[in-house]
Amino acid sequence: MAGEILIATHADVSAFREAAPLIEWLIVTHLAGQPERSTMDEGLLGILPADIRGEEARRSALNRALSTLEHTRIGGAQLLRREEVEAREAPELTDLGNLFRLNGLPEERLLRLLQERSPRTIAEIREHKDFDDGRAGNAIGTLKRAGVISVRGPEVHLEKPELPEDVRRLATILKNLGSPGGDWVGGFDERDWAVIRENSRTRGSGSDPLRIRSQKRYRIRLLVEFDASHESFERTAEKAMAGSVGPLTPEMLRDGTWRGKEFRRWNLALRPAAPPIGRRHPYREYLDSVKRKLTAMGFVEMVGSLVETEFWNMDALYMPQFHSAREIHDIYLVKDPPRARALPAAVAARVATAHRDGGGTGSTGWRYEFDADRSRQTILRSHGTVLSARTLASAPKVPGKYFAVARCFRPDVVDASHAADFFQIEGIVLGKTINFRSLLGLLRLFGYEIARATECRFVPAYFPFTEPSVEVHMRHPTLGWMELGGAGIFRPELTKPLGVDVPVIAWGLGVDRMAMVALGVDDIRDLFTADLAKLREMKVRAERH
Amino acid sequence: MPTISIAPGDLDALLGRALPESEWEARLAAAKGELKGRDETTGAWRVELNDTNRPDLWSAEGIARQVRSLLEGAAGKRQGYPVFAGRTSPRLEIRVDARLREVRPYIAAVRARGVAITEPMLLALIETQEKLAENYGRRRRFASVGLYAAGKLRWPLDYAAVSPDEARFVPLGFEQPLTLREILEKHPKGQAYRPILEGRPLVPIFRDSRGEILSFPPIINSRALGEVKPGDSDLLVEVTGTDLRGTVLLSNIFAANLADRGFRCERVRVTYPWETPWGREVATPRPVSEGVVVDLAEASRLLGEAAGAADLRARLVAYGCEVSGEGRGKLRVVPPPWRDDYMHPVDAIEDYAMARGYGSFAPEMPADFTVGAVHEVTSVADRVRDHLIGCGFEETIGNVLTDRATLRDRVRRGGVEPVTIANPTSELHGVLRDALLPGLLRLEGASPRATYPHRAFEVGEVQSPHADADVGSRTLVHAAALWASPDVSFSDLHALLEALGTYLDWEVSLAPQDHGTFIPGRAAKVQFRGAPRGWIGEVHPEVLDAFGIRTPAVGLEVVVAPVPETSP
What we know:
Shape of chain A: elongated
Strand order of the largest sheet of chain A: 13-16-17-21-20-19-18
CATH topology of the domain at 284-305 and 380-537 in chain A: BirA Bifunctional Protein, domain 2
Distance between the termini of chain A: 44 Å
Number of strands of chain B: 27
Strand content of chain B: 25-35%
Oligomer: heterodimer
CATH class of the largest domain in chain B: Alpha Beta
CATH topology of the largest domain in chain B: Phenylalanyl-tRNA Synthetase, Chain B, domain 3
Structural class of chain B: alpha+beta
């Protein structure tokens, strides 16, 4: 480690002393006084000013000061480093433990009372000011079992003035934990641990003096030769610094004093901890990249409401009202209002007729009694295709290409592969020249350009709203054969009632799995993680193109 | 989508020759089927059938029939199913009670004889019966199926209406006779399917000429006549339902399946006391589809290459259809009797493409030129995101579905109720968020192990109740930011809002106003050009407590843009 130790100038130190908050200064001077210039962060908690109250606040203040110090440089050298990360269990004082440490354990207090005078009555002990915490009963019980005292009628007699070993150990543990720098570094033996566990059974309930905390510990090492006493520091520093330049300053540039001097070589091997920086959510970044590719291919984005009607979500897509995907366990219904106020009358009537008997589309229709009231049922959109239906009904461009990255909702049980809500990437292509072969061509393009496929194949599929329907399977460079998405040419029973007279390709891509692989996530819920620390670990792998 | 189980070797037996497993797997595509897995112990395949409008494929018989048709059809040979060719009036009769017209009007049936049914065969038959009744039959409401040992029956049979208290019999699974009402109340099947007959003073009963009860459709069969056992070689399959075509179609599927197993099928005459779409006397099974007329020019346009009449005809025949000329570049295509999924010529054209194999069509790049663009809402939202990221904020994505307590009680907010789900799967996902800040506070509460400072934001959709909207609410894009750090204060976030306002041209001003989420005197309405657009404030300690947050935090939320119902 000697190679990492650089000497700071007195000016650097003075500037630091002026700039650094008290806590940072305290830490540095504390470490400077340590023979090996290292300690555990637990040891530092004790040196914090007493006016920082509460366990969490002290930890947070210490953590902050250490992070700052890790990024502070004196004379260009990193000041401090936390290393040797390890996770282990350690006891810590509860509020009760702190009280016991200050006032003594109940057993200690009882022994003291009896040593002053024995016997005493139980009532007298209970009412003694030393037992205003109501712990007399426990102490009497423990000491009686250990034979330290005996209880005869209402009187308590001292038998042998010696605390049981477990009590003595506990007292020592409390004392150690409470003093600055005194913590698990000294180590607890097996018997200590038994005592610790015995006295930390009820986690967080406040009725035990200790709690076992599992946490990461750091060894903290001061990286700069540093003497808190100014006189000696000054002498060392001046000798060592003579003739070399530390940080370049505006004054040096103005006066030209840097000329002829040697620039001290910084230690570049030090790796600072990465500070949190502003950045896009990795999943968003992935979705953004898909959006960019689609717009580059000439697709126009569609957006729409999260709350929809069964009409737009299903009827307009020629999904019969009896279709199994329309059952109550597959769709979220909105409570209030249960029905939309109105639907566009002309389109609604044409769609109803198409379901009933084909309505002049050249089809027999689904041949059932269409329920117009059900059309107005309010629901959460269950697929992105609803946006395509709405676009078709509002005079889209021909030729035209549209896409949506739509948040969708289905009442699946939330687990590793089902999120409460999820994104679907879907769209349409309209044009006089659209046909089955151009559908396959488009899907192959998606496979190569969006999903990095090395090979694609097409399999027959079924969707109530397309005919022909196709599923595209692709060979992914790392995942092998997988399903990329489903597509087809919208049925005339769907397009004609919406006012479209050209063929329309409908496509949907299942990108979640690729996104999860790209982000190194194997549980879909992690894409929506509510833990900043986890989020900071997630990164997007660079793409080939 | 139904998933069925197929015993090892069954497909080969039905096809009449053995295909390697890999070939079967590939050929499942012709039935829109997918091999999902194999049972470890029995080796049975689990096959998922994707076409919800092709119930004929939901059995090993159906899949094998489709594949056999493609294999042999190419050689011009078609498997005969004489039962569908019958023209004379059948000997066997079922009489329908006029009072069933309003309850469950239709019945179709087929008798099948000549093979002693084996246990695996019977199990497969029962599985098909259940899949068809549950899935195609919409949980038996639309159609349901019953199987009987036909040898014990006295013809003609009666499909009659009775009061639920009038008839009693011993149902399958029970030892004692129960009235129909008792069956609906006590029998597991009665409890499961009771809603179909809810509120009906009269319910269906299926009896023979002696008055012996076969079953109580669509609930349960009788133990005496409605139980088929291995070894039986004389079966009756009956289908009841609310739709004549659907009911007859299912009897067709069973007739074809049983014929494939070697049974001789016999038709049944159903006589109605009213005029059905097919008259007062309907012999079942019988073909149901009239087919479609395919225009060759239309087919060529849809496929993207010239479709020749000869090729179209040959492929569709191979796929199992009957094809006849309709003159002037048109063909009539009629699917086999076990199918009724042709609504439009495109259905036949897809069958042609499948019969040819999708791989035989050369993909072609769509050639039309179009200009791509993200929606205006997205470009506005993206600018806000970019600037917040530039300010050092980390982007998060929260779920739109959340719990009411987080949106209201925990952030000490009242007002209009958020959009609520009528059928939530869990209280945790019971409402749609109408604000983003509660989600950021939850994230902050769950992030104590991340190094401070925490500067998190989300730009995303919320659903805001709105009396004027057709669906009672509107989708908006909001932006929210939360800054949590031991030394953060109002002015830190306020300064940031100023910077955002400058670059995004928001013309921000603050109107101090208290808000339950924030500390009194440290909260303000955010205004853009003088109009209210959101809130900013120091989060109230009670709110911090409610989320388990141990550091001070300041929060900001503004509306970025409304999302139109329809775009572009």
